[in-house]
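Field notebook, page 424. I keep forgetting to write these up properly, so this time I am using the form the group agreed on. The chain and the ligand, heme C, are recorded exactly as supplied. Prediction of the bound pose follows.
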Amino acid sequence: MTQAAVAILILLASIVIILLGYNIPKGRIILMSIGFYMLMTGAFASYSNWLPQTRGEVPEEARPVSTGDLDKMTPEQLAEMGETIIFGKVGGFTERGIGKGQCPLCHTFKAGDIGDRAPNLIGIGKRAEEEIKGPRYLKPDTVQTEAHPGSGRATTAAEYIAESHSCPSCFVVVGFGVKGTNDRESPMPVIHKPPIALSIEELIAVDTWLFVREGLEAPPVSAIRAAYEKFIPEKDRATVTQVKGPEPPTPPGPPIALGTDTPEQIIMKMQCFICHQIPTIAVAKFGMIGPVLIEGHSAPKRLASPEYQARLKAGKATAKTPKAYVMESIVHPNAFIAPAFVLANNPEVSPMLQDFAQKFTFGALEKLADFLLTLDCNAAMKDGLKGPPQESVDKVCGPSGKTAEAPLKATQLLTTLEEQERDN
Ligand code: HEC
Ligand code: HEC
């Protein structure tokens, strides 16, 4: 019997007992008490049943995704595996979960959902077929025009999708390139490389889901595999198919950053590394969507900038110290948007995720802010980080690693104040 059926039985039984109690004066109090107690139990049981099952519960599908022999799987089984990789579990699509593929951090998937960070992937199969015939595709003007020398261009939808994953900059969808590059460079991470590092098997499952979920016939496994082999050179392929990708960074259970976590654990749990480069964090070397996080250097500068001061005056932002600035950036990203990252079509909304306020304890937020404030230009140089093109480390720090632009007087004041605070 299902849990829902049990809940309904309890509810019915409680009503019968209450009615009995009503009609039998001698046992009224006791019967009605029992009935009422059962009614509450039934109500709670059914309420928890009807609540959507959230990520807080250990999902049945938490078992590792099998990368066994895909050729024996039906398209539906493959699609289930793909849904698990993208959304964390079968059914994760409806619940808007996030799996090890990380795609929903940037993409939307449902008709009508408008994504600012990345295209909505609905209808991708058909769109791919049109895209590969267009002049922008056939005469690419991008930072990288071929996945590897001699690999050529995509000629089928399966190849277009495989190329999107293995060489995001080979073709950049209009309006979604890294800001300031004129759509010549994509902010999408190469999916078969760290930090996401999906194997070709996993990618085949992901691509199959993209077709099957729209009721379309997916390309055969052999065709999708051949597509990836066209765009991923053999030496990279061997490692991706033999070495299993890293374990999903978020364990099952509510992904809440806690004060007892280390800064690195918080960054892993919250997946900041998908968008940000962060010195000293091994996995955070590739993010191209947001600024490099060297807040010891950047936070005082941002605070003192006329743009921030204007937001302060308008009552939209509230920070007066670098630490408050960093904390605000994480939990109220729209208070102030770093100018180089303002979206033309949505200038009041930061491309940063909007729900960290619900995912951090105050202790965790403070700890992470303190940590980010220890990072500066030297730390970025030491790790060889380049930053995203619109705010490269060279631009922010100057080629020597020392601040190139003459710092504002107010900045100096803030920095000194902060130093004094630290010394005390
Ligand atoms: C960090 C953000 C980010 C993540 C994570 C990401 N993408 Fe993308 N993706 C983009 C952006 C931005 C574009 C558009 C620019 C371009 O063409 O490369 C894009 C383009 C694409 C395209 C081509 C879309 C089109 O309309 O032509 C496909 C397909 C795609 N992504 C699939 C995926 C899948 C599947 C995943 C997860 C395995 C994923 N992406 C993860 C940002 C991301
Ligand atoms: C989906 C991409 C994305 C994710 C995930 C993300 N960020 Fe951001 N973040 C951005 C973008 C884009 C900006 C710049 C726009 C702005 O200022 O709001 C930004 C800005 C910031 C800033 C202000 C930096 C500065 O120099 O002014 C901080 C601090 C920050 N993010 C921290 C984090 C932390 C910590 C996490 C993880 C808990 C995180 N971000 C996750 C995209 C992201």
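OBSERVATIONS:
- The two ends are 65 Å apart (CA to CA).
- The chain has a mean pLDDT of 83.
FOLLOW-UP: compare against the apo run.
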